[in-house]
Specification:
- By secondary structure, this protein is an alpha/beta fold.
- It contains seven helices and five strands.
- Strands 3-2-1-4-5 form a five-stranded parallel sheet.
- Strand 2, helix 4 and strand 3 form a beta-alpha-beta unit.
């Protein structure tokens, strides 16, 4: 595998949940009242791999620098890093939601991408959240909707209304 210096300096920016990690087994913790965020996040290390997303990420990493941009909270960094490595994915560039940041995913991700775009060109952004995709397209980013898993209303609420993932 090429080193980042040998690849195009452009970035391929990927979300994790719903793109390379299948979170559907955890959504039951958010469907009840009150929502059990602790159990939802505690089960993140057991997310199955989404082969379509992993294949696309690996393909893009051959040509670009792979960056992960997730709404997962920062306290999940060790779990997320280990999960990415077990899935055979590079985990060096991982941007996560800071503690107590409850902005909608589209706002959080647009802010991080604006900072990244000042340093490097963005070749592709892949996300499963239609609101994130719409916002980033309006900002001029090349975006692909990860549509290999139906986007759930539970996950949509967590991402856009509750700013939790």
């Amino acid at each position: 595998m090429d080193t980042p210096e040998q690849r195009d300096a452009a970035l391929a920016v990927f979300d994790i949940d719903g793109v390379v990690a299948d979170v559907r087994h955890r959504l039951r913790h958010l469907d009840k009242r009150p929502k059990d965020w602790a159990r939802f996040f505690a089960a993140a290390d057991r997310d199955p791999v989404l082969p379509e997303g992993v294949e696309l990420a690996l393909r893009q990493s051959a040509e670009h620098v792979l960056v992960w941009l997730t709404g997962r909270p920062e306290h999940l960094r060790p779990v997320t890093d280990a999960w990415l490595r077990r899935a055979g994915l590079p985990a060096e560039l991982l941007f996560m939601r800071p503690a107590n940041d409850r902005r909608p995913a589209k706002e959080f991700k647009a802010g991080v991408l604006a900072r990244l775009a000042r340093e490097s060109s963005i070749a592709l952004v892949v996300d499963d959240d239609p609101e994130v995709v719409t916002k980033l397209r309006k900002l001029g980013h090349p975006v692909q909707l990860a549509d290999w898993v139906p986007h759930s209303s539970t996950l949509q609420a967590a991402q856009e209304r509750e700013g939790r993932t």
